[in-house]
Amino acid sequence: MYSNLPENFPWVAPVGRLDLASEGLLLLTNDSEWAARISAPETHLDKTYHAQIDRIADENLLDALRHGIRSSEDGELLRAKRASLLRRGGQNSWIEIVLDEGKNRQIRRMLEQLQIEVLRLVRVAIGPAGAGRSCQGRDAHDSKEEKQALDRGMKMATREPALSR
Prior knowledge:
Layout: E1 13-15, E2 23-24, E3 27-29, H1 32-39, E4 47-53, H2 59-67, E5 69-70, E6 77-78, E7 82-88, E8 93-99, H3 106-113, E9 118-126, H4 144-159
Parallel strand pairs: 2-9
Antiparallel strand pairs: 1-3, 4-8, 4-9, 5-6, 7-8
């Protein structure tokens, strides 16, 4: 990630994380307090992912993701805020999963409990940042408006009542 930044670029750190097998939107900042606010579970800022899975998703699968799946590892309830079918192929499909907490490997753990293999996992948005357009190759110089939108999104998300868990 850092090797892709221009030479003499000021210090920046990632906001949140992506596991090694995932790809997609990664915000970078030099403001560690702002990064902590974006990543904090209590902000309930939506993180949107597209997952390619090894089967055709049906309404039962999407309902299970929305209602929650208990982890066999630690008994933790893992739940998607929203889950929907994006497209299906002959033997696999793409689903969109929106999280508002982002627990460690949450999507992979939920699908693993259902014996579903994740073929690709791509984060496409954090709050309003990245939503609806490709972010590949964009740099921090383009993001002043997105930072302001994220700040507004955090304020709105903390005012919304949390889903009952």
